Amino acid sequence: MPITEILTQNAALYGSEVSLVEINPGIKEIKTSWKDYDLVETDPSKKFRREMTWREFDDKANRMANFLLDRGLQKGQKVAILLMNCLEWLPIYFGILKTGAIAVPFNYRYTSDEIQYCIDLAECDVIIFGPEFTGRIEAIRDKISRVKIRLYLGQDCPSFAENYYSLTACCSSVAPKIILKDEQDAVIYFSSGTTGFPKAILHTHESLMTAAKVEVAHHKQTREDNFLCIPPLYHTGAKMHWFGSLLSGSRAVLLRGIDPEWIVKTISDEGITIAWLLVPWAQDILDAIERGEIKLEEHQISQWRLMHIGAQPVPPSLIHRWLDYFPGHQYDTNYGLSESIGPGCIHLGIDNVSKVGAIGIPGHLWQIKITDEKGKAVKQGEVGELCVKGPGIMKCYYRNPDATAEVLKDGWLFTGDMARMDEDHFVHLVDRKKDVIISGGENLYPVQIENFIRTHDAIKDAAVIGIPDRRLGEIAQAIIELKPGYTCSEEEIAEFCNGLPRYKRPRKFVFEEIPRNPTGKIEKPKLREKYCSINLVEAQTES
Length: 543
Prior knowledge:
By secondary structure, the chain is an alpha/beta fold. Among the domains are: 3-241, Rossmann fold; 440-542, ANL, C-terminal domain (GMP Synthetase, Chain A, domain 3), CATH 3.30.300. Helices cover 30% and strands 26% of the residues. Strand 25 (459-469) and strand 26 form a beta hairpin. Helix 7 (205-219) crosses helix 8 and helix 9 (260-270) crosses helix 10. The longest helix has 17 residues, at 54-70.
């Protein structure tokens, strides 16, 4: 069953009930590279709140669908979405799906060149964009001639686009009579793009429904739950977790802001029961509590039952610290890739907090295996490449059969992540395959070293990369980000790292902020470019 049918059902059953709330949508355009664009751009002085019922949600999706169909859009054509998080985002997404066309969400940090690249790669016929992107679209307007429809969502519509509000308002709110099948192409997502221009990831309607089923199976959403969504909706993680709200017919809040006081206040004011946080946000909340900036007794948070984290390795110390302040919370770690329709193909499980540090066990409807370089399963406890299999696997990298063949083999997705399985059959992520540091013949896995360094009281974040060394080939360098108000010397950190086996100890230390992409992943290529070279092998041979 396509997820569009779930929306229709919710509109019929719970039509007058609130489906989505948007808080603080005020934004400012920052003319900068996507690499420097903040995860959530917000202006707290423009506090704003809007809400939408399930019936309004479905009506808006139908109006969008009928507009596109009236303009001649056919099944299989592509519609790009370039919007900041807003109340219209999801109705637009579902409207595209209802036509049988393919929705193509764009990263809002893309430069003009990257937008053009993704339009060409995905063969987009339509784009809908917001005021934050007017300058970037205008810069390439003559280079994207294949895009015949340019919809603008906002005030002061530019001359080279059409106004979304005025055009869709005149369209029918009756659902179009388009038959959708599970095996039909539905969406294209893009890889993170931290190693160059992104690949286009094609998923079917079955993938989307799988994500919804997995989320509800893992986190037990009911109609009484209220989900807090902060990360960008263009990314699979935020949207796929929200699919649990869709399937359960429950309410969700889109918060534009990551200030810890804003997060806790929203949880209190809106009666949030489930929040998905990234590691830095959870750390910031705890730090604010410890500094006395957030007083939990002043907020209504007793209804908050579940905090879960995904998108990056989770330090066990963080969760133990979290449970000291929120002892009644359920907790889950979620692992996934855009190629496996976001988080959930592996998860810790809300009953397994004692195993925090592991990414977990196979998710609902998923299988896993850990293999050697020949694709053969390794012995339990040995490190190998993590592979996953399930109904949420991508169909392919769009227009890239060679890249597809590299990662899809006999129905298995080879993730590129190195992992091991412990004696209890829980999977532990060791590192990205490409990030393994080979130093003097020893394999070093940066995540292991990073997790150790983060246990230091003064350290907020850490990243470890390999840099060229004439004798050993590579050595480990640690980039250290200190907590606000803390000081620490290189000598102190080096002494602390004596707690690691000698071969795992970083040989060099640098103190600076850790760069992360919108999903919280460390931008290792950016650090390698700064401190050695993206092409490390080349740098080694030249040293």
